[in-house]
Design brief:
Elements: E1 5-10, E2 14-19, E3 23-29, E4 32-35, E5 41-44, H1 46-49, E6 59-62, E7 65-66, E8 69-70, H2 73-88, E9 96-101, H3 107-119, E10 124-129, H4 130-137, E11 148-153, E12 158-164, E13 167-174, H5 178-193, E14 195-196, H6 199-209, E15 220-227, E16 233-239, H7 240-264, H8 267-276, E17 278-281, H9 290-298, E18 302-304, H10 311-320, H11 323-328, H12 336-347
Parallel strand pairs: 1-9, 9-10, 11-17, 17-18
Antiparallel strand pairs: 1-2, 2-3, 4-5, 4-6, 7-8, 11-12, 12-13, 14-15, 15-16
Helix pairs in contact: 2-3, 3-12, 4-10, 5-6, 5-7, 7-9
The structure holds adenosine-5'-triphosphate and magnesium ion.
Amino acid sequence: MLGMNIGIDLGTTSVIAYVEGKGIVLSEPSVVAYRNDNGKVIAMGKAACKMIGRDPDSITVVRPMKDGVVSDFTVAEQMLRFYIKKICGNKIFKPNIIVSMPGTVTNLERRTILDVITASGAGRACLLEEPLAAAIGSGIEISQPSGVMIIDMGGGTTDIAVITMGTMAVANSVKVAGNLLNDSIVRYLRRERDIIVGELTAEEIKKKVGCAYLRQEEVVMVAKGKDYFTGMPIDFEITSTETYLAMREYINQILEAVQGVFEKTPPELVSDILQEGIVLTGGTALLYGMDKVISELTGVDVRIADDPLNCVANGIGKVLGDLFFLSENGYLFKSRQDISFVEEDKREDF
Ligand SMILES: Nc1ncnc2c1ncn2[C@@H]1O[C@H](COP(=O)(O)OP(=O)(O)OP(=O)(O)O)[C@@H](O)[C@H]1O
Ligand SMILES: [Mg+2]
């Protein structure tokens, strides 16, 4: 195939691009800022991320991906077009792009992701399930017949999958991950402490003192917020235990989803998992104690993959160099024409 081969982890929180032969060439928050009057994009990625919670009425800051799927087509297209152009420069041939998607997406969501990629400048596009990519990126030999469990915990979704012989035997995807954990800290502070904080502060608190499992020695940090009643700026202390209480409900929802996958997994594969352990990938895998709560629930060893934030992109990268794997497993590159055909095809389903 002519044109560069590019792998993109189009995440709810960040976009990571991998170019065949080069490795990861781009890692930017999936955030776009545009002017309301003329719709013109004024910032993207890191620059737009700094504007979250600070945007005046004339500017809107959005995340075009929500829960792992496209929530704002036009903005997602503009964002991808910008990044693809940045990567490809003035190359004549359009690139072939493989993009990851959550393990359980509807046909319509699948088509929308494909559509957005080809509209953004890809010659041909192909989709790969995030848990498979995460497993490959974390170094698991996925074609082996014994089963492994991978839990990819990102910003919008937690994808749980049991993988054997190169495919997902059982999978579940829940819309509970890092973003909702941030929200839960914002709501806790408002409810219990009458303090208002923004999303970025909540995220900083989560990363510094947050925990999914009560820490033996409590840690404390000082953060900045606003007093709910006076509206005045304040410095306040927040403890790890408070973050635990704030996030507990969502952590439990993730644990229930893991349990649900175990319930659906055939016994032979369960015994494989018991032997092989569970691998965690994605940014939320780094939350203190996440591995421990999952291990306590399941009784299985849990390890956090090396470089968990880049596992999906690295996994797609490995597949880019092995297009034979894709064709052997039924993953096909599609052009714009092929996708419009899919659209007509799908209409009969409704
Ligand atoms: N050290 C850390 N502790 C806790 N959470 C973290 C840490 N580092 C990153 N995160 C969280 O990880 C999330 C981002 O992870 P990741 O980049 O894997 O998501 P994504 O791939 O963009 O999202 P998705 O896969 O859901 O579409 C954010 O919610 C971020 O707050
Ligand atoms: Mg992800």
